[in-house]
Specification:
It contains 13 helices and twelve strands. The protein is an alpha/beta fold and about 425 residues long. It folds into two domains: about 210 residues, Rossmann fold (3-Layer(aba) Sandwich); about 160 residues, Response regulator (Rossmann fold, 3-Layer(aba) Sandwich), CATH 3.40.50.2300. The strands form two sheets. A seven-stranded mixed beta sheet has the order 7-6-8-9-10-11-12, sandwiched between helices. Strands 2-1-3-4-5 form a five-stranded parallel beta sheet, sandwiched between helices.
């Protein structure tokens, strides 16, 4: 005789069997994770800013996941596949290939222009959308855009939410002019000094081009002094600077070169109105301030900086301080945080994990939730850059970095010329 078993009876039996077997019965299907390759220099000479980038990205991913993940993808959580370039540019490509082989569907990174440029070819070849959180060299995006325009590649997968070297240069010349006017001085001898790596070359070219285009009332010396990065000694370069008798020194440094340059300037007693940088990463880092101490006091430099007038920025900054044991939420942590939030915004609008759909959503970005100082919403132009990503002039005052220019974002009044020792 055939016995019919009701659906309810069958379900009860299945639950009981699962319980006896020791296996929990899943109540519902779990959303898949969306894997992102997050690559920065977390060891080597650039470890401190690289670690700040990683923490900023992780904080944003945690916030997104705690809020329910990517809702347009069924609540998919962001999973970070972490990479370390070890401050070796050639490892940008190696690490990008590694995380892509592990399933990364997007890339984010990588702070220094050399390793970021090395990641670009992987993104284009593997069709993996790549959001550059920090790296200024113009060719990173411009070369890809050119190859797409000329038909060599079908689609651009590389976009950047960070000021370019040329935009750094334009803003630096503007800020120099305004600061000198504010102080009532017109320096006649401004000396450019820079680190001769990809970043320094690009930054110096942008600054020189902007100076020539603007023809400001202050004078930039024809002599320009550079050094290989990382340097072992900068006494010769500073001696050359001393012989040039500058009113203002305009350095573009890396953390390692700043630790040699600034003490050497003091040792050789260069009598200048001030040190005003067109853009130097890392001068605001806690490690740099602790190492350089009084040599950093009153130094000005143009860098991308958080908008601390935004209550949300202050909230995230407080969380960052707690996570890091007192470090400042700054350029690196801030731009990486914003980049991860941008990734979430793009995925919500793409409603797909298809790389072409992600790129289409990237192009249509108009994001207004950023924590950094912007000149408008985050958008991407025909080259793949955000024209609204702009720097702020900060100054080290009482051993703390603080925004001092432009006036509408300043948290303290700038000190220029610097007081005599």
């Amino acid at each position: 005789m055939t016995t019919r078993v009701s659906r309810r009876t069958l379900l009860r039996a299945t639950v009981a069997t699962a319980a006896v077997a020791g296996f929990p019965l899943p109540l519902r299907a779990q959303a898949e994770t969306f894997k992102i390759g997050v690559i920065h220099p977390v060891s080597g000479p650039l470890a401190e800013p690289g670690q700040a980038c990683r923490i900023g990205a992780q904080m944003a991913a945690d916030a997104i996941n705690e809020a329910g993940g990517i809702k347009a993808l069924g609540g998919a959580k962001l999973e970070l596949l972490l990479g370390d370039t070890q401050t070796k540019p050639e490892l940008g490509r190696t690490e990008a290939e590694r995380v892509v082989s592990l399933g990364a569907r997007m890339l984010l990174g990588s702070f220094d222009s050399g390793s970021t440029a090395a990641m670009v070819s992987v993104a284009q070849q593997k069709r993996v959308p790549f959001l550059v959180d920090i790296a200024a060299a113009d060719p990173i995006t411009a070369n890809v855009a050119r190859s797409v325009k000329e038909g060599q590649q079908k689609l651009q997968y590389v976009y950047r939410n960070f000021p370019t070297g040329s935009s750094f240069g334009r803003k630096a010349v503007q800020y120099f002019t305004e600061i000198f006017q504010e102080a009532g001085v017109t320096p006649k001898r401004v000396l450019l000094m820079y680190t001769n790596d990809l970043f320094g070359q690009n930054q110096s070219r942008g600054f020189l081009a902007a100076y020539k285009a603007a023809s400001p009332p202050w004078q930039l010396l024809d002599e320009v002094i550079s050094w290989p990065e990382p340097p072992s000694d900068l006494s010769t370069e500073v001696s050359r600077a001393r012989a040039a008798r500058p009113d203002v020194i305009a350095p573009i440094t890396r953390p390692a070169s700043a630790q040699l340059l600034l003490p050497e300037i003091a040792r050789q007693r260069l009598d200048v109105l001030g040190i005003v940088g067109p853009g130097s990463p890392g001068l605001y880092e806690a490690g740099q301030i602790a190492t350089l101490k009084e040599h950093l006091e009153y130094v000005l430099t143009s860098v991308p900086w958080p908008n601390f007038q935004n209550p949300r920025t202050r909230q995230v900054a407080a969380e960052y301080i707690e996570r890091t044991g007192g470090k400042t939420f700054d350029t690196n942590s801030g731009y990486s945080y914003d980049a991860m939030m941008l990734v979430a915004d793009v995925l919500e609008r793409a409603k797909s994990t298809d790389p072409e759909a992600i790129v289409e959503a990237m192009r249509a970005t108009r994001y207004t939730g950023g924590l950094m100082q912007y000149a408008g919403p985050v958008v991407f132009n025909e080259i793949g850059d955000n024209p609204n990503a702009v720097p702020t002039m900060i100054q080290i005052l009482n051993q703390r970095p603080v925004a001092v220019w432009p006036k509408d974002v300043a948290r303290r009044k700038l000190v220029f010329p610097r007081p005599k020792a």
